[in-house]
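Thread: quick sanity check before group meeting

JM: Hey all, I'm pulling together slides for Thursday and realized we never actually wrote out the predicted structure for the chain we discussed last week. Dropping the sequence here so it's in one place. If anyone has concerns about the input, flag it before I start.
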Amino acid sequence: MKSDASLPIWTFEETLRYTSPIHTFCRTASRDTDVGGVKIQEGTKILCVLGSANLDEDHWSEADKFDIERKPTDHLALGVGFHGCVGQNVARAELATVLSVIAEKWSL
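JM (edit): ok, ran it. Output follows.
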């Protein structure tokens, strides 16, 4: 991390992808829709499994491997869009700072 200032950021993002703080959540379909060929009726409860999505081998190369050089910009650990975590930018800034200071101060 000392030699690459971007590694603390990617380490944090990879940690979120690999060990998501929230693994599942529920939503209710607000209208009839179709997701991947599956018809979903308005009012249907949907269980979203983020932990599985973030480790999907069809999306992530070597998904079961923790890799601090991976740049996982599209993981779902903190949600997306309207339902995204409101504190995610603060969390990213704080953790990047903490990891940078640790890398500077200690030889690992």
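AS: nice. The chain is about 30% helix and 15% strand. The longest helix spans residues 88-105.
JM: adding both to the slides.
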